[in-house]
Amino acid sequence: MGIMQPIIADTNFLSDILAGKPSAKKTIAEIITDGYYIITTVISTSELFFGAKRRIWHESRLLKLDNFINSLQVLDFSLAHSRLFGTLRAELVDKGSDIGFADTAIAAIALSLDFPVLTANVKHFERIQNLKIVPYRA
């Protein structure tokens, strides 16, 4: 196998890993076989923490989430990403096909680095021109 390449995992995939879903475990094996390693964004980690707080997770489960996130490379959202985000979101809104803050922000990070996005939400991400998408079937 050659050099491994990063793939940005979207929140839905990360949630399924945490839930121990067989489809997520299978996808991890496929991704590794295809030469990728999984990273994520601060946007997805924020969504995970939001979901955990809304569901009133106990400390032991929050610790599991912390440990999981700490095991990943987490990409920040920079000023350059925010500029690209502004362009992308304006274009989407003008076309009447807004995908929301989080998915647009993840797309901006991925596009700026030329990394693919692993997601079950292909319908949102396919609206972004030139974004590489790897579908996840939950």
What does this structure look like?
It is a single chain. With 138 residues, this protein is an alpha/beta fold. It has one domain (5-131): 5'-nuclease (Rossmann fold, 3-Layer(aba) Sandwich), CATH 3.40.50.1010. The protein is 57% helix and 14% strand. It has seven helices and five strands. It has helices spanning 11-18, 22-33, 42-54, 59-70, 79-94, 101-113, 122-125; strands at 5-9, 36-41, 74-75, 117-119, 133-135. It has a five-stranded parallel beta sheet with strand order 3-2-1-4-5, with helices on both faces. Helix 7 (122-125) links the parallel strand 4 (117-119) and strand 5 (133-135). Helix 1 packs across helix 2 and helix 5 (79-94) packs across helix 6. The two termini are 27 Å apart.
Shape: globular
Distance between the termini: 27 Å
The CATH topology is given as: Rossmann fold
Please trace the helix and strand order, writing H or E for each element: EHHEHHEHHEHE
Low-confidence stretches: none
The overall pLDDT, averaged over residues, is 95
List keywords for this structure.
138 residues, alpha/beta, Rossmann fold, 5-stranded parallel beta sheet, 7 helices, 57% helix
What is the compact description of this entry?
This protein is an alpha/beta fold. It contains seven helices and five strands, in the order βααβααβααβαβ.
